[in-house]
Amino acid sequence: MSYTNLTYEIDNRINIISINRPNNLNALNIQTFSELDHAVKSSVANPDVRLIIITGSGDKAFVAGADIKEFVNFSMEEAYELSESGHKILSETIESCPKPIIAAINGYALGGGLEIALACHIRIASENSKMGLPEVSLGVIPGYGGTQRLPQLIGKGRALDMILTGKMIDADDALSFGLINYKTPQDQLMTFAKDLAKKILSNSSNAIKNAIKSVNANFQQDVNGFEVEINEFSKCFETKEFIEGTSAFLNKRKPDFN
Ligand code: COA
I need a labelling partner for 25 at 20 to 30 A (CA). Which of 12, 133, 239, 240 fits? Predict the structure, then answer.
């Protein structure tokens, strides 16, 4: 499928999805969200892809939020649908993705943009990035999981400070809060992201899938994360990758999981 609002490339088992509406600072309209959903799902189905990087086109924005111009006249019912479908994509397609997803934040990550990044497994931000959930300044609240995932990552006090003030924080504060994992100069962001991706790709993709599922279980209601871990741990045994990883260790060589 060709995308109108995304660019999609596969390079060395890494799929780079770039949200591409630079005239609107990559604001997330419904079509873009649905293309993102489709692009991630097609990468999951593609055996040539083992990791996904989501970024924004241009040098100014990752995603400057949901498209305000699109939702400005929505009714309550339309808003409910918008939020519900966004939640489904972020929870089921991105957060639960069995292949790791890195957010490479290259500028403004606001509102829905930050919420996409929060659903990714790892976040890297360039030094010029600004992150925030400014929805209350528009008379609305975060609607794509921001009120839930931001406190999970940075704690309730800091999350409420960011959500109630609507302020933007810079990459230094985001790093110190644990909102991002790494900060890089802007011109090194994608190189850094690809290097990190290569490090992850040197490990067992089966074990990575089971690890993502187990960590996510900690945040699901009515799911016992410890039990999920026991199951996912035991499922690794007798797999080809477990045999390769353990025999490589015992034979003092590097494992080959390709
Ligand atoms: N939805 C729709 N359009 C958006 C947008 C959004 N979330 N964010 C930016 N844009 C558009 C602007 O309307 C503008 O389009 P125009 O040239 O047709 O007027 C274009 O992107 C450039 O934005 P501009 O505001 O001129 O850039 P700036 O550098 O002066 O400011 C921001 C950058 C990010 C501070 C500012 O655009 C902003 O506050 N955006 C909204 C952020 C937000 O509230 N997000 C949460 C939405 S729920």
Answer: 12
**Site residues for ligand 1, CB cut-off 6 Å:** 24-25, 27, 64-69, 108, 110-112, 134-135, 138
Residue 135 a catalytic site member: yes
Q: How far is the CA of 114 from the centre of ligand 1 (A)?
A: 14
pLDDT tens figures, 36-57 = 999 999 999 999 999 999 999 9
Model pLDDT for residues 221-232, shown as the tens digit of each residue: 999 999 999 999
Instruction: Give how far Cα 109 sits from Cα of 30, 87, 123, 174, 200, Å.
Output: 17, 17, 11, 11, 24
Radius of gyration for the alpha carbons in the chain, expressed in angstroms and rounded: 19
Closest C-alpha residue for ligand 1 atom 21: 24
pTM: 0.97
- What's the number of domains the chain is made of? 2
Q: What is the CATH number of the domain that holds 173?
A: 3.90.226.10
